[in-house]
């Protein structure tokens, strides 16, 4: 039980090591869970339940930061660390690979104020391919809050919801992945003043969101606007995978697809949740919009690989919870930390009816073991939680699905998959 539950903590920082450089035009990398013994941030002194609670805390913290106008995501949420090499000659950096953020930045010399990191700071004076971005450029306009310095170069400012921040110079550089795959003139931020809840195992952020300045958008022509991931359980002794380009294709007779909805901000990947079924009882989403109900629910939830839990609209959650109360037999208790609303004594186990998330055109059956999780010894809680505002489909309920993002066709594809098997 403990080994399986540890594998659910995928909102945490993980290490990405590139294992396949070019595979018919695609790139595939490994994802290593932060709390596994292979992670550089693994702490054997922490108990299983301490790691679990920390992951859930990050989920709530990340949700708050995703709602921030100035900051699309809080690094404290902790997604994945991605190994990249920047400059000529290339220098290795480790950045948090973040699907909820656009701008890629790394800590740079000279540094007015930098948080502690394990790797050496990137030094732009020692690379021949570093070029500052001018204030009149499209890149500067796309970076968010920016201003000009006396040399007419663009200076960016990124403010995160938890008061973390990065200030520095916007520039273009050559980015290289293991295996020698290089991409010239990638726009990124050279951070000279950075502080907050950043881990010393990482050097900054790798933006994988949908905005124009993200790595995904900048490399769109090279990767065909496609990336995918498949999250495996750690008790399978397998790593998870994330792929870009042709190797990111998700295909097969059991694939289901749902449209990506264009909304603001364009960083996030919006889907349409039509309802949730508990067993055979379907509970439809009720829009509070004064417009037609179908229009009111378009793009009503984001899919996020960096958030552990699933946050449902409060009305829908309350009906799901009420239905589960009638169906689940067990001794109800309160969560001692007040994080979860529906909890039971774990003695004897808790068996939930099947739960299905009904996205537009795609029905996803949640993994049975991910619905109720032992959050501390003797207490099992429902991992769906209510939200008054932003709804999020979290990674805990994306387990064992190969999930592909096609930004050209504007859709997300889901294929039930044993993600412990190599792709």
TrEMBL record:
Assigned protein family: Belongs to the peptidase A1 family.
Organism annotation: Perilla frutescens var. hirtella
Protein name: Eukaryotic aspartyl protease family protein
GO biological process: proteolysis
Biological classification of the source: Eukaryota, Viridiplantae, Streptophyta, Embryophyta, Tracheophyta
Pfam families: TAXi_C, TAXi_N
Record localization: Secreted
Cited CDD domains: pepsin_A_like_plant
A GO cellular component entry from the record: extracellular region
């Amino acid at each position: 039980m403990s080994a399986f539950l540890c594998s659910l903590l995928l909102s945490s920082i993980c290490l990405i090591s590139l294992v396949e450089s070019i595979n018919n035009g695609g790139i595939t990398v490994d994802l290593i869970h932060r709390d596994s013994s292979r992670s550089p941030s693994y702490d054997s002194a922490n108990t299983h339940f301490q790691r679990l609670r920390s992951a859930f805390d990050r989920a709530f913290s990340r949700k708050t930061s995703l709602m921030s106008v100035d900051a699309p995501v809080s690094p404290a949420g902790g997604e994945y660390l991605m190994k990249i090499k920047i400059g000529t000659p290339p220098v290795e950096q480790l950045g948090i690979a973040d699907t909820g953020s656009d701008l890629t930045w790394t800590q740079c010399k000279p540094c007015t104020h930098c948080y502690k990191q394990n790797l050496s700071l990137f030094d732009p004076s020692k690379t021949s391919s570093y070029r500052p971005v001018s204030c009149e450029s499209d890149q500067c306009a796309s970076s968010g809050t920016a201003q000009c310095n006396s040399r007419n170069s663009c200076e960016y400012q990124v403010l995160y919801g938890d008061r973390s921040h990065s200030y520095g110079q916007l520039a273009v550089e050559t980015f290289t992945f293991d295996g020698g795959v290089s991409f010239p003139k990638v726009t990124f931020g050279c951070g000279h003043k950075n502080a907050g809840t950043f881990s010393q195992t990482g050097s900054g952020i790798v933006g994988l969101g949908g905005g124009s300045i993200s790595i995904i958008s900048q490399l769109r022509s090279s990767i065909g606007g496609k990336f995918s991931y498949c999250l495996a359980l750690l008790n399978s002794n397998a790593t998870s995978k994330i792929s870009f380009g042709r190797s990111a294709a998700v295909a097969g007779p059991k694939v289901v697809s749902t449209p990506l909805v264009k909304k603001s901000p364009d960083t996030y990947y919006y889907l349409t949740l039509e309802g949730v079924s508990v067993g055979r009882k379907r509970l439809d989403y009720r829009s509070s919009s004064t417009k037609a109900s179908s229009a009111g629910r378009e793009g009503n939830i984001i899919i996020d690989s960096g958030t552990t839990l699933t946050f449902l609209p409060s009305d829908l959650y309350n009906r799901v919870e009420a239905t589960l109360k009638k169906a689940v037999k067990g001794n109800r208790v309160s969560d001692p930390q007040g994080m979860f609303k529906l909890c039971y004594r774990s003695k004897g186990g808790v068996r939930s009816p099947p739960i299905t998330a009904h996205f537009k055109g795609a029905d996803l059956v949640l993994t049975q073991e991910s619905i109720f999780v032992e959050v501390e010894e003797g207490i099992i809680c429902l991992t769906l939680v209510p939200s008054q505002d932003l709804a999020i489909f979290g990674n805990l309920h994306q387990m064992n699905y190969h999930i592909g993002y096609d930004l050209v066709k504007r859709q997300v594809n889901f294929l039930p998959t044993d993600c412990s098997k190599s792709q």
